[in-house]
Write a structure and sequence with these properties.
The protein has 2 helices and 3 strands. By secondary structure, it is an alpha+beta fold. The radius of gyration is 25 Å and the shape is elongated. About 20% of the residues are buried.
């Protein structure tokens, strides 16, 4: 079976690497995918929310802790993240903070392909979850 120029070759006919696509520049010259800081911050905020639920056992109650905030600064394939969040009282702050930082860094790196250089946490306040619905003692 012979193939005309421009037609597909039969399966198994070519044993070498695939031929380059005509008309496209090499992959290194095509450009790069740029993820805006705002998008990386949203990904980090969602990752932090999930890590906060898992590590600090904060229930997804809107009347509880205030929503967390995140910011990101990307530079040449790496990112620095800053998260501001509430944590429950009592809790082991160093352990929970480290787990949240690690979980957020892993998730952001996996979803964006960026190298997460640093995850800084600011704990806005400690929230007593057990007694939030108690009334005033007289």
């Amino acid at each position: 079976m012979s193939a005309r120029p421009g037609s597909a070759t039969p399966l198994g006919a070519g044993s070498g690497p695939p031929a380059p696509v005509v008309g496209l520049p090499p992959p290194a010259e095509r450009g790069a995918t740029i993820i805006p800081d705002k998008v990386v911050a949203r990904i980090a905020a969602e990752a932090a929310r999930k890590a906060q639920l898992r590590c600090a056992a904060i229930p997804p109650d809107r009347s509880g802790p205030a929503a967390l905030s995140a910011s990101a600064a990307t530079h040449t394939g790496s990112v620095r993240l800053h998260l501001t969040l509430d944590l429950p009282y009592p809790t082991d702050l160093p352990r929970v903070s480290e787990r949240i930082q690690r979980d957020v860094a892993d998730r952001v790196a996996r979803l964006t392909g960026l190298n997460v250089r640093e995850v800084t946490l600011t704990i806005r306040r400690l929230v007593t979850l057990a007694g939030t619905n108690r009334g005033r003692v007289q």
